[in-house]
UniProtKB/TrEMBL annotation:
Keywords: DNA-binding, Transcription, Transcription regulation. Residues 113-177 form the HTH luxR-type domain. It comes from the Bacteria. CDD domains: LuxR_C_like (cd06170), PAS (cd00130). It comes from Shimia sagamensis. InterPro entries: PAS (IPR000014), PAS-like_dom_sf (IPR035965), Sig_transdc_resp-reg_C-effctor (IPR016032), Tscrpt_reg_LuxR_C (IPR000792), WH-like_DNA-bd_sf (IPR036388). Pfam families: GerE (PF00196), PAS_9 (PF13426). This is PAS domain S-box-containing protein.
Length: 177
């Protein structure tokens, strides 16, 4: 194994190369993070990391504009593991094809929750993802096509479940377990 391959495989974060949201290459760190064998991920759609096609499409839509403008995008998000558990990750993407941002992407995923796996509903994941990007309830509601009251209800349930008083504490709880 040459130095480039060694650096790729031994990186302390999961690294993935995709073409049109299909995994073409990944390192062992990414495979471990999502609970798959590396070989089993090749040729798979990124859809397998999300609970629904709707969520998969929303994630694409959220990042597409920044990728077109800045050629890069980052956020914090929940990703589904093979065992059905979820991992809270810091996500970064860089397009290699600015005219068609999803044609070729290099992405990194770094786990930011060291505790036991967290299980959130799709809606909870959407709300937490928006909070992780610094959005208000109104902004999350607008993005998801929901009422701000619906978002506030989800936030209240999350606050009660994780015994926190605000979004900052919620994100900290998800980050440090």
């Amino acid at each position: 194994m040459n130095w480039d391959q060694l650096a790729f495989e031994a990186a302390p974060v999961g690294i993935v190369m995709t073409e049109h949201r299909v995994i073409r290459a990944c390192n062992q760190g990414f495979a471990r993070l999502v609970g798959y064998e590396k070989e089993g991920l090749m040729g798979q759609s990124f859809r397998l990391l999300y609970d629904s096609t709707e969520e998969f499409d929303q994630v694409r839509d959220i990042g597409l504009k920044p990728l077109k403008q800045d050629h890069a995008y980052s956020d914090e998000r929940m990703v589904r593991r093979r065992d059905g558990g979820q991992v809270w990750c810091r996500f970064r993407a860089q397009t290699l094809t600015p005219d068609d941002p999803l044609a070729q992407l290099v992405m990194s995923f770094a786990a930011i929750h060291d505790g036991p796996p967290v299980s959130l509903t799709v809606r909870e994941r959407q709300v937490v993802g928006g909070l992780g990007r610094g959005l208000t309830s109104k902004e999350i509601a607008r993005e998801l096509g929901l009422s701000p009251r619906t978002i506030e209800d989800v936030r209240a349930r999350l606050h009660k479940r994780f015994q926190v008083k605000n979004a900052t504490e919620l994100l900290a709880r998800l980050t440090i377990g």
